[in-house]
Design brief:
heterotrimer, A: mainly alpha, 3-stranded antiparallel sheet, 4 strands, B: Arc Repressor Mutant, subunit A, Arc Repressor Mutant, subunit A, 2 domains, 6 strands, elongated
């Protein structure tokens, strides 16, 4: 709310009233909620927070809310909720305790409010102490010219015999291989795979991924690759059955690996 | 740590058990941790250092010797949680204007929230709001997370399993704290019961139980986080 | 640099009786240069340091003492041009790096070149290029040499006496081959379906050569192939 709005008010305000009103606006904006207001009000009692009079504090707060209302300051809902609760607390504290009444006594509620205020104050003091400590980049400094640990990345290259054979075959047949494959139907038969695998398997002494056995030209196109994989897998099973091949898979969906069955090997 | 009692424990141990791999003498090990810690802008854990040192070295002992050596110097070896870092002596801050980085101005809400996390950790957002008496804006938490001063802790075993916040080693480093137990006035606050998460009288019994459990967890959680 | 924020030097200057106020003891000055040099992102000149130190300090002397103090330590005070900086001791450089190994597939060019060397050894670069149909980059050959999979063989007795390449025992070891002759021949490759039967007319000659190679590979005169 601005000063102009006050001037539009039908009741003329004195300068002192206007200053007070503006101070309150600023202050309400500055408060971090009703608990903050209560803590500020409690300071006027000038006693240890543990000995504070909650009854007096409730009265102060209600007066604060009344004043805000009179100045037509719109208070957020939680300020009003707190006011209602403090009015209730005030009545509890003033009236003699009713043995029939259920729930916590006025004293218990007041004690908890006092605890909340004390705890908030304690956290504020702690925060101030924390911010006053020696701080990195202000009072204490880290290494300016840090030598970071260099990562020495050693690259080790790997290639299998099958890679080598593929590469050589690729050179010997050059690009003529591809059109030849593309002329065909996009289905790779198990018979084709079996023919191919029988030839390849003899050189496969080490565990090698099934995908390494897929024929050139059948590896990129997903449809062709799927067909070739299925056929090669079926052919592998046939070769296992024939006792020429070992096959393994460490886990569901893990790569399937093949190796020549070697009777000399355990 | 009682490193001062034995002068050459490393040598002893080596001749006894690891005669094949003789660790470098302690003086050399001290040089090694000195070089690593000096070169790094960030705190290094004993494990970081040990991983880079030759077999059989005792990084903890080397650090203990090194710390002693730098006592009273222009730079000091500081403990930060379970890590170590060289930092300039605070009394020489006046020489450093040139190096000063802009220490960001934090809002009052952020400062209070940070203090509450530090003293009450692990703490939920609801608990922070309960203590401050107002809701905590997303931005405040985000700012503290971005500064790397707080991080998410374990979820609480109360209904809804809310996330908790705890402070980080970067927080300790920034405020020159060795551990979260070195927070100013922590003992007094705890003794005064001001770190308890007391619920208002008449609150739901279930809520009370939950908070009681968590009170225990608070004490343990804190020490566990920054245990040596 | 303005010293206005420092109380001590300000007082000195104001009274203009500098001799009355003694400079800090040399031990303190040493601490100061130590902290400044540690925290600075760049080497500092004596002038840089003196400008920040209280009046009456002798940065040069402090640096000299400091340098002595760090002699033989894990970090040393080094002169960098006309400035000074802390540097880790060179003998501890091994602590400043972390090794990691990464396994990579050989590039297509490299594997093809390797295959040609294996099947045609000893082979010149020009021959490799002729077989591949593209030029072979220096990097590819270097990589294979570095991997210790190929090495230089005897020079060929043709004009220009070009060097040849042969495979190494490390190559055989890596590919689990006893000798290069264990490599499957063209017939076997064809039988395995690796070679298309329908060779283009232009490739016939090469194919023929290939068969020759194969014969050689199964025989023992591989190295004599290019001898004459």
């Amino acid at each position: 709310m601005s000063a102009e709005e006050f001037e539009e008010d039908d009741r003329p305000l004195s300068v002192a009233e206007r200053v007070a009103a503006e101070a309150l606006i600023v202050d309400v904006d500055g408060y971090e909620g009703p608990l903050d207001v209560l803590l500020m009000l409690s300071r006027t009692q000038k006693v240890d927070l543990r000995k504070i009079s909650i009854l007096a504090l409730a009265k102060q707060y209600l007066a604060f809310v009344e004043k805000a209302k009179a100045l037509r300051i719109e208070l957020a809902a939680d300020y009003l909720v707190m006011a209602a609760w403090l009015a209730f607390l005030k009545s509890r504290l003033l009236l003699p305790p009713d043995p029939e009444e259920e729930g916590p006594s006025g004293e218990e509620l007041a004690a908890h409010l006092a605890f909340q205020l004390e705890r908030l104050q304690a956290m504020r003091d702690a925060a101030a102490q924390l911010m006053a400590r020696n701080r990195l980049g202000r009072d204490v400094f880290a290494r300016g010219e840090a030598e970071e640990v260099a990562r020495v990345r050693k690259v080790s290259y790997s290639a299998t015999l099958l890679d080598l054979m593929h590469a050589y075959a690729r050179i010997r047949t050059k690009d003529e291989f591809r059109p030849f494959v593309l002329d065909r139907d996009r289905v790779y038969t198990m018979e084709q795979a079996l023919d191919r695998m029988r030839g390849l398997v003899r050189f496969q002494g080490a565990w090698t991924d099934l995908s390494a056995f897929l024929p050139e030209g059948w590896r990129v196109d997903p449809v062709m690759r799927r067909s070739a994989t299925a056929a090669t897998f079926a052919a592998s099973l046939q070769l296992v059955k024939e006792g020429q091949l070992d096959i393994r898979q460490s886990d569901t969906f893990a790569p399937i690996e093949l190796r020549r069955r070697d009777d000399r090997r355990d | 740590m009682t490193d001062d009692e034995h002068q050459e424990p490393q040598a002893e141990r080596d001749t006894e058990t690891e005669s094949l791999f003789e660790a470098p003498p302690m003086g050399e090990q001290e040089r090694m941790v000195e070089a690593m810690l000096f070169a790094s802008a960030h705190p290094l854990t004993l494990r970081d250092m040990a991983a880079r040192m030759p077999h059989g070295c005792d990084a903890a002992e080397a650090v203990a010797y090194l710390r002693k050596r730098y006592e009273g110097r222009g730079v000091r070896l500081m403990r930060v949680g379970d890590a170590w870092a060289f930092r300039t002596a605070p009394d020489l801050a006046f020489l450093m204007q040139k190096e000063s980085t802009e220490v960001r101005k934090l809002s009052r809400a952020a400062i209070e929230t940070l203090a509450i996390v530090a003293y009450h950790q692990p703490v939920t957002r609801a608990e922070i709001e309960e203590i401050r008496g107002v809701s905590v804006s997303r931005g405040t938490i985000d700012q503290l997370l971005e500064l790397d001063w707080i991080r998410l802790g374990r979820r609480k075993m109360t209904p809804g399993r809310p996330v908790t916040f705890v402070v980080t080693p970067e927080f300790l480093d920034h405020f020159s704290l060795e551990t979260a137990r070195d927070l100013p006035g922590l003992k007094e606050l705890r003794a005064a019961g001001l770190l308890d998460n007391r619920l208002p009288p008449g609150a739901m019994a279930a809520g009370e139980n939950g908070s009681d459990d968590e009170d225990d967890a608070t004490g343990d959680g804190q020490s566990e986080l920054f245990e040596e």
